[in-house]
Design a protein that fits this description.
With 234 residues, the chain is α/β, with parallel strands linked by helices. Helix content is 38%, strand content 24%.
């Protein structure tokens, strides 16, 4: 595993509509922006050889300052670039800047600060074997398929997982997935959906309950609790 080169891509071009127009990646969590908490987990993962972040044009300077200061502490460089209007566009912009010699691409939500270096490594190891891997957790709720307000069926929970990030792919798999999406005019909600559209196999490793995506003010309250737990474990 030590010979693998893994490029991390972190799309952070969201506008925080569900957070009341606050850009959640810049929100303070115990005095530190959420995006920096996230970056620190990737700095701590030995397999990660480069990191690229996509942000809105107006936030380029702000992100360059933040990542420059943090990267200097860890002796790591972070490439910051202008993202697109959609997550898919932002990830592809970063992907195009990655050297084709890279073995794997790890795409992670900027606002999942409680990922662990161990989970990142586990997804990397699985993707190096299978070509594509996502973390996922089992749903504890009963899931219904509906049409408008009418229940059609109950979907067996044992066949469902809640997808998390980082989603890790071999370079060539993600390259072909982007090409196929362009060819078909396909838009996915995550990179795994692009790879599914390509017809490639994706495997799953066990995710973490606390690897939450901060999308609402209530999520930020939960994040504060998880941060306290994380700090107590050090």
């Amino acid at each position: 595993m030590s010979n693998l080169s893994v490029a991390a891509i972190i799309p952070a071009a969201g506008h925080g509509v569900r957070m009341g127009s606050h850009k959640k990646q810049f929100d303070s969590l115990d005095g530190t922006p959420v995006i920096i908490h996230t970056l620190r987990k990737f700095f701590a993962c030995p397999e990660i050889t480069s990191i690229s972040i996509a942000v809105p044009k107006g936030d380029l300077d702000r992100m360059l300052v933040l990542t420059g200061e943090e990267g200097a502490r860890h002796d790591k460089m972070v490439a910051v670039m202008e993202g697109g209007t959609r997550r898919q566009d932002s990830v592809e912009i970063c992907f195009r800047s990655v050297e084709p010699s890279v073995d794997l691409i790890a795409v992670h939500d900027a606002v999942r600060p409680f990922v662990t270096p161990e989970l990142i490594s586990a997804a990397i190891q699985e993707a190096s074997r299978t070509g594509a891997c996502i973390p996922g957790i089992l749903t504890v709720d009963t899931v219904k398929q509906v049409e408008r307000n009418r229940v059609l069926s109950t979907i067996p929970r044992e066949r469902l997982v809640l997808a998390q990030t980082p989603q890790v792919f071999r370079y060539d798999v993600l390259k072909r997935a982007f090409a196929k999406a362009h060819e078909d005019g396909f838009q996915g909600t995550d990179e795994a959906s692009l790879v599914e559209h390509l017809g490639a196999e994706i495997t799953v490793v066990k995710g973490l309950e606390r690897n939450i995506k901060i999308t609402t003010p209530a999520d930020m309250e939960l994040a504060k609790y998880y941060l306290r737990l994380e700090q107590q474990s050090f």
